[in-house]
Amino acid sequence: MSFNEWETLSFPHFFGEFNASEEDSEELAKYKDLLNKEYAFCVKIVDDILAKASKIYDKQIYTGKVQMFACDFAKLEGALADWNELKS
C-alpha cells in the first residue's frame, strides 16, 4: 500500500503541519516544531513502516495469535467498522 492510499483510508487522522503563531508560548512553539519533525520523519519511512506492519498483520491473520506489543488487528478492524457505521 502506498502512502497516498494509506492517507485516504477512512479513519480519523491528521495530515498537515502545525504552524507556530505569535500567540504561542515558547514551549508550545517547540512542541509544534517537534511534531513537524516527527511527522516528516514518518513520511520518509512510511513504506518501511507499512511493509513491517503488513508482515505482522499477515502473520497474525494466518496464525490467529497476537504478538506481544503488536496491535490486535481484528479488534482494530471491528472498531473501524463501528466508527464508519456511526459516521454514516
Total helical segments: 4
Characterize the main sheet.
none
Low-confidence regions: none
Structural class: mainly alpha
In whole angstroms, how far apart are the ends? 25 Å
Tell me, briefly, the overall form: extended
Rg over CA atoms = 17 Å
Give the proportion of residues in helices: 55-70%
**Mean model confidence by pLDDT:** 80
> Which series of helices and strands comes N to C?
HHHH
Report strand %. Answer: under 5%
What is the total tally of β strands?
Answer: 0
Pfam family, one: ToxN_toxin
GO molecular function, one term: RNA endonuclease activity
Organism: Butyrivibrio fibrisolvens
Protein name: Toxin ToxN, type III toxin-antitoxin system
Please describe the topology of this protein:
Blueprint: H1 3-7, H2 26-44, H3 46-63, H4 73-87
GO molecular function, one term: RNA binding
InterPro entries: ToxN/AbiQ_toxin, Type_III_TA_endoRNase
Pfam family, one: ToxN_toxin
